[in-house]
Amino acid sequence: MHRHHSFIPVVAAIGAALALSLAGCTGGGPSTGGNANSNSAGSELSGSITFQTWSLKNDKFTPYFENLVKDFQAKHPGTTINWVDQPGDGYEDKLQQQAGAGELPDVVNLSDSFAYSLAKAGKLVDLASADPTAIKLYVPGGLAGYTFAGLTGTWSYPWYLGTDLSWWNTAQLKEAGVTIPTTNDEFLADALKAAQDTNGTVRLISSMPDITVFEDAGVKTFDNGKFVFNTDKAVETLQKYVDLYKAGAMPPDALNNDYAGNSKLFSEGKVGFTTSTSSFVNELTTNAPTLLSEVDVTKRLATPPLFVQGLSVAKESKNPALALAFAQFATNDDNQTAFVKLAQGFLPGTVAANEDPSKFMDPSATDLMKKAVKLAAEEMKTAKPTSTLQYTDAMKQFVAQQLALAMQGQLTAKDALDKAVDFCNQNL
Amino acid sequence: MRANKWYTPWLLLAPAVIWVLVFSIWPFLNTVILAFTDARPLQAAAFTGLDNFGRLFGDERFVYALETCAVYVLVCIPVLTFVPLLIALLVNSKIPAVGFFRTTFYFPVVASAVVVAIIWKWLFDSSGLISSAMQALHVVDQPYAFLVHRWSLTFCAIGLTVWKGLGYYMVVYLAALGNVSRELHEAAALDGAGTWARFWTVTVPAVRGGMVLIAALIGVSAMRVFSEIYVLSNGTGGPGGQSMTVVMMIQSVGKGLSGQLGYASAISVILFLITLWPLLLVALVNYGPQLGALREKQRGFKASKRLIAARRREDAARVLASTSRDGGAR
Predict the structure, then answer these.
(1) Choosing among B257, B260, B261, B263, which should be mutated to test the A contact, i.e. which has the most A CBs within 10 A?
(2) Which CATH superfamily includes the segment(s) A165-305+385-426?
(3) How far apart are CA A89 and CA A170, in angstroms?
């Protein structure tokens, strides 16, 4: 009998370990965790938190973050900031696992779309109510990127912002006998002319049309909780691209291209135009130095998009006061200015830091980089964040697949858009 | 000597059992459960019955994925079952520098599938080596983009799988060929059998077991193909997603913060059921005679039971008849 009793704790321990492991695997539903304001306001900061960045651990940025942490800890003795960085690939999956397990880092770097999903699941602190004074220090465009329809609050401090510019291969434009266009209609006409006159040697369309192309053409894409980008105007816009593809104005490889495919085609000299952020100069310097002398940059022909990265505070943080304080410290004027000085081509997220672009311009930057940064700073005043956060990656992929079929003539422009809209609405 | 406690074997087994439960059995069961729900990340799941499965067969992406996988299976099984055997026969012969050839054929197996696919992509894109060569030879006027057409993309991926798999299966056959008796070949040659006849009547029967296993393994991996088409099509599955595979679809549907985990799980369950078939086939071929004998034995057992029952009935009837006869006489 006795030996049976001694076995019970062993079985219980194994059972408990198994149950905990299984619970960990399963994850959990939405949480109703704590709040950033749960600590007494104004109390001395202490304890430790985790700060997570996204693909920023490298020779260029590591010293910056190490100093940032050191400065904060020196200012607030008794605090510890554990900085972790996640690789670029699979960041969304990592966030999903962390949030599902209730282990989202206290301060976490999020794009607007990731912040939307996490805020919707109740995983983030509303920073507008956590500190109503501090939120006013940030640029309105950046805050708009983290303010979502149907959710009251602002879910991230804008950290660094970017926008797209137009990049031109002037040698190819010269070969095609066209100059840099100033409107989108002019651009489409030039693309057709270049393809016809050079028998498809000079191609100016570097990417598949996407939902933003329809938005730029004045088509309402999302209305009353439904996707509606299959209007006559949208069909007409898509048809223009189908005709351009048939004329050879777009390389066939573009039909399979992912997000950065257009800039890659440009670097390879396969297209004469692409859109990219001002940091594209760095990519060209590394990957296509011979092309650099022939490259010029101008503002976007359509509404410039706003790409925004922010710092959010996890609702389940065990030290919300410290997390909030660190998020504000990392995104203050001085630290943002120092950061974008390293991340040339991006702009800071606070109003004061944006007042004088020369402060964050690297003096050793090339003329092309200086021009790009200046244009980006000007564009930022009119840049708009992604308007439809309900437009998921799966929808994006399906829409691209249908539009590719339309390009190849396997579907009409109307049928492709109808199918795309149906799919998006079914998967909302 | 002290006797071991009764639970000692269980304790020794526990790590392995826990490992299997946590990392194999539980994820599998969880997938099956999720397949009947509308689970999404960070949201509570609700039971939806067979909705996911019903939706699956109306989803053209799934039909495309099944077609792509079916073509993959139909092409890969014969090619990867026979070509490595022929290569194994070549490198099994005693020729100078045979070790070099064996190593060369095995090289692609060692290379990463993703890296190889990237190189393959350079070869087959519109400005790649193949398209340029075709243009230089005036086969085509304009650059041809192999990777943006459904079947050329699929066959490029199949070519990559075959090229990469040849060496691996060649090694399996080399091991099997080591067991083929030289005397059998000599006897067949003495009987007048040529090379071709000896291949079909001596070599193939001798490696039959390995061949069936290889065919089944190829069938299963062809149904689960992912990296090749994913890299060649930049994760899009080609225009219309028509070259997408079942695993690519699972990844596409289930990934990210807005992933549809329930629907992705339903596709996984269907894929699991499909991949069971080649393995059942192997079991049937390898254990066919034993199964036949077992069936015969069962049949014989049932027949003898029937015979015994019939005899008992006859005996009972006889006893009853004699009893009633005796009673009547009295």
Answers:
(1) B257
(2) Periplasmic binding protein-like II (3.40.190.10)
(3) 34
Regarding beta strands A305-313 and A165-169, do their DSSP bridges make them parallel or antiparallel, or are they unpaired? unpaired
B236 contacts A100? CB cut-off 8 A: no
CA distance B41 to chain A (A): 7
Overall residue count recorded for chain B in this entry: 330
Q: Does residue A267 belong to the interface with chain B, where contact is any CB pair within 8 Å?
A: no
Q: Which tens digit of pLDDT belongs to each residue from A104-124?
A: 999 999 999 899 999 999 999
For the question of an ipTM over 0.85, the answer is no
The amino acid sitting at B242 is Q
Chain B residue closest to A20 (CA)?
B22
Which CATH superfamily does the domain covering A42-161+308-372 fall into?
Periplasmic binding protein-like II (3.40.190.10)
Distance CA A337, CA A12 (A): 56
Please state whether the predicted TM-score (pTM) of the whole model is above 0.90.
no
Give the type of residue at A10.
Answer: V
Task: Note the helical H segments in A135-183.
Answer: 140-145, 170-176
| A226: helix, strand or coil | strand
In eight-state DSSP terms, residue A47 is E
Of B227, B2, B244, give the one whose Cα is nearest residue B118: B227
Question: Minimal Cα distance from A389: which residue of B?
Answer: B258
Which residue in A has a C-alpha nearest to residue B4's C-alpha?
A: A3
Superfamily of domain B50-296: MetI-like (1.10.3720.10)
Cross-chain Cβ contact B236/A404 below 8 Å: yes
Which residues of B, range 23-52, sit inside 8 Å of A by Cβ?
26-27, 30, 41-44
- Distance, in Å, from the CA atom of A283 to the CA atom of A267, rounded to the nearest integer, reads 8
